[in-house]
## 1
Amino acid sequence: MKSDPIVIFWFRRDLRLDDNTGLYHALKSQYPVLPIFIFDTDILKQFETPENAQVEFIHQQLQILQKELRGYGSSIEIDHSTPEVFFDNLCKQYTIKAVYINEDYELSARRRDTDIENFLRKKDIDFLSFKDQVIFSKEDILKDDGTPYTVFTPYSKRWKQHIQPVHLQSFDNRDFFSNFYKFENDNIPSLSDLGFTQRRGLIFPPIEVSDHLIKNYNQQRDYPSIEGTSRLGIHLRFGTISIRKLIAKAQSINDTFLNELIWREFYHAITWHFPHICKGQAFKPQYDEIVWRNNETEFTAWCEGKTGYPIVDAGMRQLNETGFMHNRIRMITASFLIKHLLIDWRWGEAYFANKLLDFDFAANNGGWQWAASSGCDAVPYFRIFNPQLQTEKFDKHLEYIKRWIPDFDPLNYIPPIVNHEFARKRALDVYSNALKK
Ligand code: FAD
């Protein structure tokens, strides 16, 4: 056991050194900072396939962090077990004064953090948490009567009234980087040590987004054949970019882009205030009365991009090949699965969770419950996207469809799995029956 006291910074959704709130506070403590990361086996075992884009991204990012830390004579201690086991081991090796983290608002993460906090407190070790991945969290944005917002527009208005320059001040860590604990450790487990393999064709989007793209966001963001959105989802998910810096940029360039970042905070706030959604329940309980058809053959056709609706199929193929799907197409494919096929939105949510590079529980659940009409500020149940009309509006020249279905021939394509008009009426019946109860 090493007797010189240290503090620990535990990386999770904040894989960067720069402008990292919890890390800043750790580095300003009087003790050397040991950075750690845990490939949590409880989380990894939830992934279905050996190929997982997010695990690969984290793995790559840890190597970048390791290189940076080496420049300061330090390293990152990486473990592949559970937080309970790893902290128990660390307590046997080091004299730990405190563990610093940035907050995570998902239910399972909150439970994990409470367990670790209790374990550490018994050993007289402080557990200090900070807000980092959002500008406003928890009780920061509430209605006048002290209850949480469940509709986006008034939430975003209050959010914009609330924000002050102080919220965007960055935590300039650089002067304190000499305070990292000095040691050398090259022990980053390989992907195969973790039980994963490299996915072919996976490209991680760059961390930079041009001012030009943000300026033109309003005109371009709805057209899936144009590279008109930022692709920053994965960087926001794992904190490789600072939300404070991005919001400052959005504020100065484009209010519509800013609104999208506020949607992200809105869904995080919903997750915090309404944890029943983390347990697989509909935000609005009456929507759990819907009797789903859950036809497995149709689900497979949807997953594989073989529904006979080209815009849906192109989207699913883009997702399967690249781990990304354009927002407009996420809405169309989700609506199709839920309303045309009457398959439980939770099946689609799980499929996206496993495939999306930018998968984030709050936004994914929010998006799926929006499409299912069961969400907090959702599309009305009787609004059912018509894939043909959506194509005419957003992919008029079939550029997106042809990119993902290269041999696409409109006159000789797979027959539709279900007739649109028939499916629309069936969905209306099933929904209205369920909601009558
Ligand atoms: P941009 O359009 O450039 O937006 C910038 C950032 O704002 C995004 O990266 C994201 O962090 C945030 N954002 C934008 N739109 C939304 C939104 N509607 N809700 C919440 N945050 C938003 N987004 C995820 O980050 N992770 C998911 O797992 C996810 N699953 C979705 C599932 C469905 C069914 C639907 C309809 C939407 C989902 N979204 C999800 C929201 C949105 O589709 C993606 O954030 C967006 O397409 C990501 O592309 P981008 O980074 O280029 O976004």
## 2
Amino acid sequence: MPKPIQNASSPTTQIESTPKLVDSFGRAITYLRLSVTDRCDFRCVYCMAEEMTFVPRAQLCTLEELAQIAQAFTELGVTKIRLTGGEPLIRRSVETLLGELGAIKALNELVITTNGSHLKEHAQALKDAGVKRINVSLDTLDPIQFKELTRTGDLAKVLEGIDYCKSLNFARIKLNAVILKHRNLDQVIPLIEFAKNHQLDISFIEEMPLGVITEHQRDQEFVSSAQLRELITECFDIETSSENTGGPSRYWQVKGSSTKIGFISPHSENFCASCNRVRVSAEGKLLLCLGNEHAVDLKAVLRAHPNNIEKLKQAIVNAIGKKPEKHHFEQDDVQIVRFMNATGG
Ligand code: SAM
Ligand code: SF4
């Protein structure tokens, strides 16, 4: 069990005096994407190179440190935490972290993004921790294409995980798909059909130039959200939805069904003006923007001042003032050398 965190202020004064995280552009930060590990059992072609060097284990935050970071953010007004990675469900003893986070009263929403490969065995722990919404990345329903895109993945295991989560009645399961023009564009309609048939939602994500990959040229594979919508409207009747899950997705409702289709458009519909989130990497780096290299080492603060949450909170408050205004992605121009798995997608 983690040690109790030393806290200088009483719970009452904390609520009254807590400085909210507001950056220099007036954006309130209420959402943390917390990376549990940079490792993964898949090697998705848009996310990773085939041969990857991961952070040495000794440099990763312990689960206890990740829980302390989460606690500090919630005391500063963060109400939503998404566990991500790498593949969050392959971190050993991730259940312990889930339990710790689930017990944080100020947290309204604990959610997770997973590749689904180990979802079945962890689904109950997710449920017990109070996770209500799960995002499962799924780019294709064709098992051969799935293997090609993930390089190592087994589609059947992912589908089993989704099925099992459905049987546990999670409030919402959403698929995430990255569409590459010459690889899985033909899967857009089947994926929506699948989502409809299983009462799931689905978001399409434009590929981002994070890290140097070799298997394709990103600009050659780019499909914009608008192009996808054109394709989708040939087969489905969709209308704009006011749904907002606090993330970057813009939603459309498939008429006559419960399925919503989201579009995450970092290139074509820049969402920086309403950005409410920051990321913490598995080695404890606070990343202020997905598309910029600014980072602050929270693990160093934690290790210099063990169990002193006030020092940690101060470091976070100071860092938020440096959050950049926006990202600038060029389709095939890698300005960010960090791969998505190290960023925490
Ligand atoms: N391993 C988990 C998974 O795949 O769901 C969580 C981490 S993964 C980095 C989070 C999301 O980022 C996934 O939905 C994945 O498709 C997306 N992603 C990875 N690399 C990307 C890239 N270069 N551009 C856009 N999305 C990317
Ligand atoms: Fe792993 Fe997720 Fe990256 Fe695929 S997208 S390699 S599953 S971290």
